[in-house]
Design goal:
With about 575 residues, this protein is mainly alpha-helical. The chain has 24 helices and nine strands. Strands 5-6-7-8-9 form a five-stranded mixed sheet, with helices on both faces.
Length: about 575
């Protein structure tokens, strides 16, 4: 506890304070525990098919991994789900593997192998922890919507492209290419090889998932119904042999899902790859931060609560550091699972912990039955996830958007689909910065001030005050940053006959940067060469401190820095009277 200047106590907020501590140290009764247990059991059932499908989709065919692909998704859901709930800054956040990571996971494995993925995941975890401890949680909110919407929709389309083989039952000796354009070419060559029963089963599963909620049975998710129904049909009628329908067992072997968690093991890290993995790791960290905090915001709206974004980032980072030691995948907060948790009565992080324990119990009891799950059902689950995560409606509104927003959205979308998520995130962030600069510059105005002006406070008011002949007055309104500096130069360059005195009113400028300072210096040099004087009126602390540090006060002259417009007019009259008397 620290005392402020007035003597009252100021409570310093801890940088890392898990919300689970509120449950441990607060009022938490049987009713709360009962609600959390039921919600956790339900979300565990929802997460099961998603974890299986995400694990399968995240590992390219033929890639050697310490455990079969379906197991990797389950391990990640259990370990990350437990850690994110136990350490996170949201009461109801559910964490685990998500579909958004699939394109970048495939890219990293293709270029650097599975050990490269584990290393990139740990690096991403460290980045997230640093972001949280540095209190950067709020900065994620400043990423423009066109960027997030563009790569979210691009990821959705890329996910659907990766599922074409399993959804259509096309199986070739060589794995299908990862790149979108090459995948389309591969599909055109092998479309004739599709397995009709597999397509029927996949479409049937997809329709069950889509329409099941309309029956009003919330406790049992449609994805579970579709997966179990398809598994029973394939197992009972022997469709794997008679119809050639691929299953988890036929693709990954009898031990596709171990019946327990693996022992902790130190991943093999090739430190020479660290430089090449900085970009992918940063992409994982940014994507994880965006998705987890967006999920936490959605949860806040459903629960009338407020999450701690910095604690949440630290928890996400710890989960991503730990998961690779169990062979796991990148993880983050999942919007759909978090919403399901709230809608089913989840009240505290206990529900997320129960969700993780539920998944652990399922693999311990029913792992051997997973071999009968059809790949078509897993593909249908992911196609449904992609259909829901893509913001397809925004594509229809492109013509109604500002041109700059539409260009950013389409560019980010195209880069995500055609190239990869790392390129999309990097270019998207640059476009985001450019869009921010454009928005800031649009809000900054540079205009000439006349005696009829009334948009001022009393001490700055122009109305009723005479502006002497030979004095020109301009006002800058808004942040005076590099995006707006050119506006001032353009406005003053249009002045055909330079006045004896130029008054620049800066009392509406809250901030200034080095580019604006350079532009201001150019203007002053131009006027001083002409024998004119520039007076700066109403400087705030930040711009004034910048002028002092740059030695600008001596350039313009201390008497020409005044607090109010009245003082500026008085100083201008002194200068003109001195010129006239000379």
């Amino acid at each position: 506890m620290n005392k402020g200047k007035e003597g009252f106590k100021v409570k310093r907020r801890a940088r890392f304070r898990p919300r689970l501590l509120e449950v441990i140290g607060g009022k938490y009764g049987r009713a709360d525990l009962g609600a959390d247990v039921m919600a956790g059991l339900t979300v565990g059932l929802i997460a099961l098919p998603l974890a299986l499908a995400l694990g399968i989709a995240s590992v390219p065919a033929g890639q050697q991994t310490p455990f079969p692909a379906p197991a990797l998704g389950i391990f990640t859901a259990i370990i990350a789900g437990f850690l994110i709930s136990a350490l996170g800054g949201s009461r109801v956040q559910i964490g685990g593997p998500t579909a958004a990571f699939i394109p970048i996971i495939l890219l990293i494995i293709e270029r650097h192998g599975y050990s490269g993925l584990l290393m990139a995941t740990v690096m991403a975890g460290v980045i997230l922890v640093v972001m949280g401890l540095a209190k950067m949680g709020s900065l994620i909110k400043f990423i423009p919507w066109p960027v997030t919407s563009g790569f979210t929709t691009g990821i959705a389309l890329a996910i659907m492209a990766t599922q074409t083989g399993d959804f259509l039952g096309i199986h070739t000796t060589e794995p299908a290419p990862r790149e979108f354009i090459e995948r389309l070419h591969w599909l055109s060559l092998h479309f004739k090889d599709l397995n009709v029963p597999t397509v029927i089963l996949a479409v049937g599963c997809l329709l069950v998932i889509i329409f099941w909620p309309r029956l009003g049975i919330k406790r049992v998710p449609g994805s579970i119904v579709a997966m179990l129904g398809a598994t029973v049909l394939v197992a009972v009628f022997g469709w794997q042999q008679s119809l050639g329908i691929s299953t988890i067992g036929s693709k990954f072997g009898a031990g596709a899902i171990p019946s327990s968690l693996p022992a902790i093991s130190w991943p093999h890290f090739d430190w020479s790859m660290m430089r090449d993995l900085i970009g992918p790791a940063t992409a994982i960290a940014l994507l994880g931060a965006i998705e987890s905090l967006l999920s936490a915001v959605v949860a806040d709206g459903l629960t009338n609560d407020r999450h701690d974004s910095n604690t949440e980032l630290v928890a996400q980072g710890i989960a991503n550091i730990v998961c690779p030691f169990f062979g796991g995948l990148p993880a983050t907060g999942a919007i759909a699972r978090t919403s399901a948790n709230v809608n089913n009565g989840g009240r505290s992080p206990v529900s997320g912990i129960v969700h993780a324990l539920t998944l652990l119990g399922i693999i311990m009891l029913f792992a051997r039955w997973a071999t009968y799950v059809p790949m078509a059902a897993m593909s249908a689950v992911l196609v449904f996830v992609a259909l829901r995560m893509g913001e397809w409606h925004e594509m229809k509104r492109l013509r109604l958007m500002p041109l700059s927003d539409a260009v950013v959205l389409v560019t980010t979308f195209a880069l995500t689909v055609i190239f990869d998520l790392v390129v999309a995130v990097e270019v998207g962030m640059v476009l985001a910065a450019m869009l921010f600069i454009k928005r800031v510059s649009e809000t900054t105005e540079v205009s000439q001030v006349f005696e009829s002006d009334v948009l001022e406070s009393p001490e700055q008011l122009v109305t009723g005050k005479e502006i002497p002949e030979g004095v020109l007055v301009y006002r800058i309104f808004g942040p005076f940053l590099f995006g707006a500096a050119e506006k001032m130069q353009d406005a003053l360059e249009r002045v055909e006959e330079l006045p004896k005195v130029l008054i620049l009113r800066l009392h509406l400028v809250s901030a200034m940067d080095a580019t604006a300072l350079n532009a201001l210096e150019s203007v002053i040099e131009r006027f001083q060469k002409h024998g004119s004087t520039v007076i700066l009126s109403g400087l705030h602390r930040q711009p004034l401190d910048m002028l002092r540090k740059a030695g600008f006060v001596q350039v313009i002259g201390r008497p020409n820095l005044v607090a109010h417009f009245d003082d500026a007019l008085k100083r201008a009259r002194e200068i003109i009277d001195g010129l006239d008397s000379a």
